[in-house]
């Protein structure tokens, strides 16, 4: 048992159990191209209730305009009132994947907010954190990370 003030309480559920439950709920995994107006190649029926993107859109977008378009395209997969959760890098220009140095569009918090608005999302929550020096490993030049909850407007 943990003390209420314990900063690291024991997990309530082993990760293996969470993994089992998640796998039981997944219906399918499909390839996506966020730079196409129909990212899945055809409309999604029924549209998704929620979508999650983690460190993806900024890594596959050559510039801020492409990042905004990618958000708009991803938004087309959501039902009206659907939710998107984004996790991403701030100020990152590259990351290393083995010997390859891959470019990333460097985003500031204002860029992400503007892109969400331009893509038609209502921002529900935005949090950003500076990357502590102890977590800088040399595989990228990230300044911080952002966490976003946004919502597609009702029809």
UniProtKB/TrEMBL annotation:
GO molecular function list: phenylethanolamine N-methyltransferase activity
Gene Ontology cellular-component terms listed: cytosol
Keywords: Methyltransferase, S-adenosyl-L-methionine, Transferase
Pfam (any one): NNMT_PNMT_TEMT
GO terms (BP aspect): methylation
Gene3D superfamilies: Vaccinia Virus protein VP39
Family the UniProt entry places it in: Belongs to the class I-like SAM-binding methyltransferase superfamily. NNMT/PNMT/TEMT family.
Name under which the protein is recorded: Phenylethanolamine N-methyltransferase
Native source species: Falco tinnunculus (Common kestrel)
């Amino acid at each position: 048992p943990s003390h209420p003030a314990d900063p690291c309480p024991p997990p309530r559920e082993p990760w293996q159990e969470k993994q089992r439950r998640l796998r039981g709920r997944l219906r399918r995994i499909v390839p996506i191209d966020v730079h196409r107006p129909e990212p899945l190649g055809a409309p999604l029926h029924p549209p998704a209730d929620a979508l999650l993107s983690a460190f993806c859109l900024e890594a596959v977008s050559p510039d801020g305009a492409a990042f905004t378009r990618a958000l708009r395209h991803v938004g087309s997969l959501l039902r009206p009132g659907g939710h998107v959760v984004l996790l991403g890098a701030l100020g990152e220009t590259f990351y290393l994947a083995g010997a390859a140095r891959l470019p990333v569009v460097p985003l500031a918090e204002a860029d992400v907010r503007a892109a969400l608005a331009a893509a038609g999302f209502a921002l529900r929550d935005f949090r950003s954190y500076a990357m502590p020096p102890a977590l800088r490993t040399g595989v990228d030049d990230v300044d911080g990370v952002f966490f976003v909850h946004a919502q597609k407007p009702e029809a």
